[in-house]
Amino acid sequence: MNYTELVTAIQNTCVNTEAQFNNHINDFIIATEDKIFQGVSGPLFWKASSSTPTVAGTREYVLAGGTIDVLGIRICETPSGDIDTGGQSRYLLRKDIDFLREAYPGPTTGTGGGIPKYYSVSSAGVSGSDPTLSVQMAPVPDDVYNFQAEYYGKAVADSITNGSTPDLPLATSTWISVAFPDVLLWGSVLQGYTFMKGEADVMAYYESRFNEGLLLLKNTSENRQGTDTFSDQGQGQ
Questions:
Q1: Paired sense of beta strands 130-138 and 60-62, if any
Q2: pLDDT tens-place string over residues 149-159
Q3: pTM of the model
Q4: Are 188 and 6 in contact (CB under 8 A)?
């Protein structure tokens, strides 16, 4: 299901094509995407930033827009080396910010240091319309080391609504809209019908359909990711 099809399905199900309703359809869809994001973990929202260079003497770095939580940071130990092919790389150990401040006291910039061994999430902020996080590394980098952050996130550009309105729809799609279209549809319909102050029993039906689909998505994205299929098939032999 693409954006155009999704909007049509929302309008048809809610039996509403009025301008006021149409003006909020993107809000209904985004609210549903946010509920899915909050309710489902797993690789659906796992991302990796592009290779980023450290700056000698600088401890703190702002990560990519849309970052909600950091899964890991991989760094190349060869100065200016490529993260994958330019030398040995390793993951930094995540520590509490108080550990960094006690073990490596001093300002966020300065000389000395070495190859970072640890990182800590130090602050949260906004980049444009996207949430983001900042991290501090320790010891403070003494050279240019390329690093890549792996993170859990959702940016504005990830929404199926990006670049579209009901009046000017695009045939864009996302993984969720293709793999689990019912989850996105029923969640959006629930949001739309709530906006219309619809009947409670109908609203409960829409909510049940959304929750059923969300559970299936959750099982696929979370439970099956930790399953070793080869090992399971070999059990009992």
A1: antiparallel
A2: 999 999 999 99
A3: 0.84
A4: yes
